[in-house]
Amino acid sequence: MQKKSGGNNWIGIAVFLAIVVGPSLSSFLSGAIFSLTGVMIGSDVILGGLIIGSIVISLLVSVARGAGRLNSGSETRLPTTTISPPQMAAPPRSSSAPPSAPRMGAPQMKLPGRPQFEPIIDPRVLTFGVVGLIFFGLVFFVILMFSGAI
Predict the structure, then answer these.
(1) What is the dihedral of CA 92, 96, 98, 104, to 10 degrees?
(2) Better-predicted residue by pLDDT, 39 or 150
(3) In a 3-state reduction of DSSP, which class is residue 141?
(4) Is the pLDDT of residue 68 over 80?
(5) Is 89 strand, coil or helix?
(6) Cα gap 120→136, rounded to integer Å
(7) CA atoms of 69 and 61, how far apart (whole Å)
(8) Domain hosting residue 38, numbered range
């Protein structure tokens, strides 16, 4: 299991709020910029800037957090005691005798079992996401057909 870092949920909330509250905020900012500078900037440009800006900020925070982990993990300690594995002496062999086949009663080393892999994404979440993507793609296609764009 991975250790979850707490206290960093504000990044996702900021991106979510930029998408949800962005249209009303961008029209307000567009009017405020026009009244202050006289330059007309479309609210769609401001909305795109808000969303892209929040994504860039979240990426920079993630990179900074990763760089902090690399710096803290770079300090490695070497072992202070030397432990040598016990050395086994090889049994004497006669050079003329061929090597004997393993005996039936001799214990054999067991191989480790199959490796178990945990999926990165839960299959239910992945299925829900793919079905949702197909659903919204079809809805968008139907809207484009009715609006006459296609």
Answers:
(1) -50
(2) 39
(3) helix
(4) no
(5) coil
(6) 24
(7) 12
(8) 7-72
Do 23 and 43 contact (CB within 8 A), yes or no?
yes
Please check whether residue 93 lies inside any domain of the structure: no
Answer whether residue 121 is part of any domain: no
Q: What tokens appear for 5 in the block?
A: 């870092």
Q: What is the DSSP string of 22-81?
A: HHHHHHHHHHHHHHHH-----HHHHHHHHHHHHHHHHHHHHHHHHHHHHHHHT-----SS
Residue 95 has pLDDT above 70, yes or no: no
Evaluate whether residue 141 is within a structural domain. no
- pLDDT at residue 116 in the model: 80
Q: For residues 134 and 100, which has the higher predicted lDDT (pLDDT)?
A: 134
Domain count, the chain: 1
- The helix (run of H) or strand (run of E) holding residue 14 is helix 10-20
pTM score > 0.85 for this model?
no
Q: Is the dihedral of CA 117, 123, 125, 129 positive or negative?
A: positive
The H-or-E segment that residue 133 falls in is helix 123-147
